[in-house]
């Protein structure tokens, strides 16, 4: 276990593989994985106040308002107190990035770059176990039993916002909103880009990067 804490964000377009890469980081490095998208989907499923408010935006492929999502992430980060963590899909606006910077100094910004045509093709085969956030894809990491989660045997679902027209909207919102976020992190020299069409291509590079970064952190060079 690392004695110093590592804090990272993982950014990338919808279905670029943030959740998939995050799972591998959790398995290898033991970081706490915080995915606001997963938290929102659980709230929608349980019909909470947050879920009801967020659903309207999620279903249209729009971003949930900053104050809602910042509140949600801030309280989840408190649960990670004393642990190394990675935030998946947050920040998505400059306001979110600035608020996060006031709370925590980051050690890395991992930016996944996957071509849009690959993404559009991928979402068609995505299946999800809602309570855990585990994702599957037909032809990539298929569940052992069709339609069932490997660990719990519970039902898998498809996301309402994975319909082609909503995915197109999400990609457009992403391109618009992320530029100022990436600029903010470039100004702070934090961004590392990982380009590729598959997780098989991207993961070894992310893994090597994190091995080096966590070593540097331990040696006090970060
Ligand atoms: P989310 O939940 O943050 P997105 O749109 O950022 O959603 P998403 O869709 O969850 O991102 P991902 O996590 O990047 O995608 O990708 P993934 O699930 O790991 O992989 C996608 C699929 O490809 C999976 O089926 C996987 O198995 C498969 N796959 C992976 N690698 C490969 C490969 O090599 N080959 C193949 N064939 N398949 C592969 O946000 C959702 C909504 O929540 C709100 C917004 O409304 C947003 O639209 N929201 C926020 N709003 C405001 N601010 C924020 N910070 C918000 N965060 C969430
Ligand atoms: Mg995800």
UniProtKB/TrEMBL annotation:
GO terms, molecular function: AMP kinase activity; ATP binding; GTP binding; nucleoside triphosphate adenylate kinase activity
Matching Gene3D superfamilies: P-loop containing nucleotide triphosphate hydrolases
SUPFAM superfamilies the record matches: P-loop containing nucleoside triphosphate hydrolases
Family annotation (HAMAP family): Adenylate_kinase_Adk, Adenylate_kinase_AK3
Domain notes: Consists of three domains, a large central CORE domain and two small peripheral domains, NMPbind and LID, which undergo movements during catalysis. The LID domain closes over the site of phosphoryl transfer upon GTP binding. Assembling and dissambling the active center during each catalytic cycle provides an effective means to prevent GTP hydrolysis.
Main location: mitochondrion
Subunit structure comment from the entry: Monomer.
Record's subcellular location: Mitochondrion matrix
The organism of origin for this protein: Musca domestica (House fly)
Region called NMPbind, residue ranges: 35-64
Reactions listed under catalytic activity: a ribonucleoside 5'-triphosphate + AMP = a ribonucleoside 5'-diphosphate + ADP
Top-level taxonomic group: Eukaryota
Binding residues annotated for AMP, in chain numbering: 41, 62-64, 89-92, 96, 159, 170
Protein name, UniProt field: GTP:AMP phosphotransferase, mitochondrial
LID: annotated segments: 125-162
